[in-house]
Amino acid sequence: MNIALVIIFVFLLSSLFFGIRAQKGKDMNMEQWTVGGRGFGTIFIFLLVAGEIYTTFTFLGGSGWAYSKGAPSYYVLAYISLAYALSYWLLPPIWRYAKRHKLVSQSDFFVSKYKSPVLGILVSAVGVLAIIPYLVLQFKGLGIIVSEASYGSISPAAAVWIGVIAVTAYVMISGIHGSAWTAVIKDIMIFFVVLFLGLYLPFHYYGGIQPMFEAVHAANPDFLTFPKEGMSISWFISTVLLTVMGFYMWPHTFGSVFSAKSASVFKKNTVILPLYTLMLLFVFFVGFTAILQVPGLKGADGDLSLLRLSIQTFDPWIVGLIGAAGLLTALVPGSMLLMTAATLLSKNVIQVLIPSATDKQLPRIAKGLVPVLSLISLYYTLNGGDTLVTLLLMGYSLVTQLFPALLFSVPARPLVNKYGAFAGIASGVLTVAYVTIAQVSVGTLFPSLPAVIKDLNVGIIALFINVVMMFAVHLITQQLFAGKEESMPSEEAHQPVS
Amino acid sequence: MKAKDWLGFVPFIGMLGGVPFVNRVEPYVLGMPFVLFWIVLWVIITSGIMAVVNRLDPANREEERG
């Protein structure tokens, strides 16, 4: 066992300790478990909302994208800061409504606004469907980090098992309180690690940031700007807009909004959070530095660039600290994802389908679902293969389809009825599923169009169909059911899952 | 929508709308290729705009007074 591994395990055990201690003296009912009794102030909300951004995907994937794709990686910086700006207008009304109606999940919001439990089942299905690949991604990243930092002495599979057991334990015991405390340690660690790596590595190998970029530019003149075709400027703009819309539609991000103490917490955070995204800049610097220093990482192996370069440069104890920070970037979001999926399934699916389940049984059902979800994700982590990126992109496109129905429900009276909301989400989700499975892009649909349009993110089409269906069905049902209430056929709710 | 709410569109227009005109490597600013610098600059401006929006928000002042 080397020093790097020792450091990683010390961090794992201490985060486990803090996570479990966090629930002391609190009656862990559903409101405490999932939304921390709505008592989190500016700093915790900052860490929870910001914390979910700095996941393994940013840590490994951010440098990996800079390494293998170049300029298109800048999109991450743009969409996160714009999403934070949007939160000033979007989150306070959601929070106020949630507090008044004692909501604990994203689906609750749709159920309450549109007065339709069936819509809640659909929204939960979309949410869980999107969460599983995201969890798999975190577990996979965790495996890469621990196994790389052990210099190969621990296999990725063993590393994944250890991490999954830890995260499952503390989610079951502490719920969101555990995530909040681990997020504190994580964000301090990641801040210093990323800052250090992003400055040290380019200076060490090139004598500065600009010489590093100049060397990359000399080796590949097209790498530091957006290409004319493919991931071009129109790809950049459409993808940023779509991901900004999808940002708060992730059920776990939406859910963490409920844990705030007041609406002004979000408003204050909108000033600091965009600056916080600048940390990503240093992640990019690492990726760009790695291009000429650890050449030859192809495809998904680009995600290894940060760790490979660190191992090549530093003593094992520094690699240990980097590995520990990376481990925490998997644990915190992983725990939020697990908890959210369990809440959605227990409260918005099981309790609707089996109304005899009481509020007392609910937390127990939710906690019982945590290990089940862990094991499902674990299975896909170990057996998933290359489909991971496809799944993640699909996850983001899926949750984005909830945005129109959410946006139109923010006014005191929703602008569309529940049938419209249901039809919009369902058609959007089915389009995404079709497009992903059939590997369609705007370019393959309309090959004769100019590149500016062909490169648009295909999610735009799904969103367009979504909005059109939403209004069409709203207008038709408005006339049909004028005045009388009818329940929706429930079998439709299961369609998007298949 | 009040005047301060319209400010919310400025970061979107600046960051996304500007990119087609600045998609080049030179000149380097603060060591960064120009298009990357442009995005970074707008991240900072976004933060500044949100500070102004927060200041102009009467709801925030009431809450501080208690």
UniProtKB/TrEMBL annotation, chain A:
Location relative to the cell: Membrane
Keywords: Membrane, Transmembrane, Transmembrane helix, Transport
Gene3D superfamilies documented for this protein: Sodium/glucose cotransporter
Record has Transport as a keyword: yes
Membrane topology per record: Multi-pass membrane protein
Transmembrane segments: 6-22, 43-67, 73-95, 116-137, 157-176, 188-206, 233-250, 271-297, 317-345, 388-410, 422-446, 458-477
PANTHER family: MONOCARBOXYLIC ACID PERMEASE, SODIUM/PROLINE SYMPORTER-RELATED
Protein's name according to its UniProt entry: Sodium:solute symporter
Organism per entry: Brevibacillus ruminantium
From TrEMBL, chain B:
Residue intervals passing through the bilayer: 6-22, 34-53
Presence of the UniProt keyword Magnesium in the record: no
Keyword set, alphabetical order: Membrane, Transmembrane, Transmembrane helix
Keyword Kinase: no
Protein name per its UniProtKB record: DUF3311 domain-containing protein
Organism whose genome encodes this protein: Brevibacillus ruminantium
